[in-house]
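Notes to self after the call with IL:
- keep both proteins in one doc
- input above output, always
- annotate only the second one for now

Protein 1:
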Amino acid sequence: MGLKVAMVAGEPSGDLLASRIIDGIKQAQPEVHFTGIGGPNMRSRGMHIQHPMDKLSVFGYADALKQLPSLIRTYSSLKNNLIAHKPDVFVGVDAPDFNLRLEQKLREKGVPTVHFVGPSIWAWRYERIHAIKKSVSHMLVLFPFEVDIYRKEGIPVTFVGHPLASQIPLKPDMQAARLRLGLSPDSRILAILPGSRASEVKLLAPRFLQTAQQLLKHDPALQFIVPIVNEKRQKDFDEIYASIPVKNLKTFSATETGRPVAWDVMEASDAVLVASGTASLETALFKKPMVISYVISPLMKKLMEWKSGQLKPYVPWVGLPNILLKEFAVPEILQDEATPENLAAACLNALENTAYILEVKQKFSLLHETLRQDTAHLAAQAILNAANSPA
């Protein structure tokens, strides 16, 4: 019997990350049996799926409370199975609320545990480091600055790079992306990305569309492109767009290239108005000047403050590009400041200020090189080392 590796991924991005780690482990050690919770990408690599990934897919606090009984049943079932049939190593991919609890129980039973994607303790709830120290034998992190945090706390850690940095080309091809989307090669284009969640579209899309209306007063020929993640978000966006129509705007819900539609939209644009989150990092990897914005409801703000015990993050930035560069390389316009007038002024700068655009692209190129590592190989080696080490 070969090595036994248990894994848990709780959402599509984690499923994709985990599948690449499985590939890396198999390259180093072909006779490996994988089991746990995952999605179609992990299943396609031969992993035995004990529970489908959607059992862990919850969005927001209200959804988490509603799904709590199902989450508890899934957790108990998997925990009991893994304790009864001890794997050689456990790998939790993101999903920290679920995985860290499971990792602690398994580590207490002598199972080495590896956690991939360190929780953002550098921004919110640093006290979670104590739970991580009890739960994790080895931490794999996406960003180089995280290494010092975990080393300082005595937690073994490896920087493995960000997989997106290997998937997104070092030199974007704007004209090829425009051709794929059927866009004019000569137009000036602003990409608008109001987010993929219903709450984000509801709060950000109206402001972003009003911003586009403001920009058209300055440049009536300016084009706008919007990626839509699924039919539900298309319906949400269309309802808002009906009351705030914008000339020269196109939405895209799919491409025939096999790439995420948002990537084609980013690559085809001159600049991007984007909701804070992973999309801002993707935008940086496509070397695009951007304006980062975010708005949350008063209730959600209170819930975040209550859960974290903080009124604001530890770091002064919310956008990943700025956090990684440790400066306001691109503007962040948040909450009440996110007016159409403020957003439009920042977008104009991102579209027209030649010196600023060149400076941002140079910074993002260096950032891309830093994050571009052989993630699958580095993660696989750390996992195999952990499997042969005490928990």
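Protein 2 (the one to annotate):
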Amino acid sequence: MTVRGAGETSLPQFAEVVVIGGGVIGVSCAFRLAEAGVDVLLLERDGLGEGSTAKAAGGIRSSFTKPVNAELGLRGLAEYSAFRERFGVEIDFRRDGYLYLITDPADVPAIGHCAELQRAHGVRSYLLDPAEVRDVLPLLEPDGVVAALWSPDDAKATPDAVVQGYARVARACGAQLRTGVEVTGIERDGDALTGVRTTAGFVRTGAVVCAAGAWSGRVGELAGLDLPVRPFRRQVVFTGPVPGLPESVPLTIELPSAFYFHREGAGLAMSFCEDDGFPGFGTRYEAGEWLPRLAELAGRRIPAVLDAGIRTAWAGLYEMTPDRNQIIGESVLLSRFFYATGFSGHGFQMGPATGELVRDLYLGRPTAVDVAELDVRRFAAAGTAPAEHHIV
């Protein structure tokens, strides 16, 4: 007997592991588990990669101030650089680098620490003075910049292509990926998982991976758990052609304003972080006071963009945790409930490593990266780990 699912032929009655969420984290987990011989069912309410992954900038970096984040980013760089050769999928991987512009002298020590951390991992990383910044990006206006961090090995790729690539190899390894199916309940018997209720029926399982991104808090509630992941809107505009735009433009971030831009076609994609305000799932683009502020930031740094006009704009969701660091681990309150979420804007670049981590946690293996500090229990402690300094 099978249970009919929306847009698919059926849902199985049983799966060894159910992965909830079809973004880059979910499909990476599904692939790694299936590759290891685990019977995997991935459930996605919409289409694969249509949540936060669809709105991701596609940056892949090692330039973090926390060692665990740098290590996860480096593993992402390694996998994405070989993605086409390994999986036969073109993801438009480009090493255009990351360029951090520092306008507050108080941020210089953190940037120096970041450069040291990268170099300790064998990554090229350079502290630049304001005059050297224009050698990297001639269109840039460096007024007010006191220092910069240049990481030429960092890169960019296309998130949707990555999702489809992981989905293809996950299916080839035996994973079942079902779209148009929403999880409506998680059944448990004491501290043991027994199954997942969905809009397409019930699936018995003894293990769940929550990879639902901005919706992970709700998934946690279904299991009677607190996953402190909240959704916050982020807006992006895409310009028309920018005169004199070089072929290679690093993903450039100004701190502390968090104004950033990168090349998108003949123009630029640009954004800056709004005041988080109140969490919510709304993704309606609203220019309001945000667009004039963006224009002010852009005009100060890249004056040529002011003649380019706006081609299109949209809004997406960030999945934020209180300390802006992701949560990865297994619940101590519900056996075999794993979580990989709360990446606070860094999920795409950490997707490859996260799939490996979840696989090893499920199989009881030592993980390649020590993620003990990313356990959700840190929020119940007297204090939390320091936040990642470089939040985009």
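Annotation: The first strand starts at residue 3 and ends at 5. The radius of gyration is 21 Å.
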